[in-house]
Amino acid sequence: MDTELQTSYQEKAYLLLKADAEKIAQLIKVQMDHLTMPQCPLYEEVLDTQMYGLSKEIDFAVKLGLIEREEGKRLLSTLEKELSVLHEAYTEK
Q1: Which segments of 1-92 does DSSP mark as H helices, in order?
Q2: How many CB atoms are closer than 10 A to CB 58?
Q3: pLDDT by residue (tens digit) across 12-71?
Q4: Is 67 exposed, middle or buried (0-12, 13-18, 19+ CB in 10 A)?
Q5: What gap in Å lies between CA 25 and CA 29, rounded to an integer?
Q6: Measured in whole angstroms, how far is the alpha carbon of residue 37 from the centre of its chain?
């Protein structure tokens, strides 16, 4: 595979993963706006499932050499921090 094509695949993979991460971030934002986590365990389950799915997507992209493991870790870390803020905000409520 030529370098230009590989770079194109890498860019597309990262953009797709970033888009999925942004969807999860939006779910977190909605949750933050409403602070309803304990009243809506299904929502928490959806977030957990989405995070797990994203981690599997990242693992797959890393195995294919489309992204670096550190890039994937950064995406997940950012979301995990947002989830932590959500939990803290609710417990302080």
Answers
A1: 3-34, 41-63, 69-92
A2: 22
A3: 999 999 999 999 988 888 877 776 555 567 677 888 899 999 999 999 999 999 999 999
A4: buried
A5: 6
A6: 18
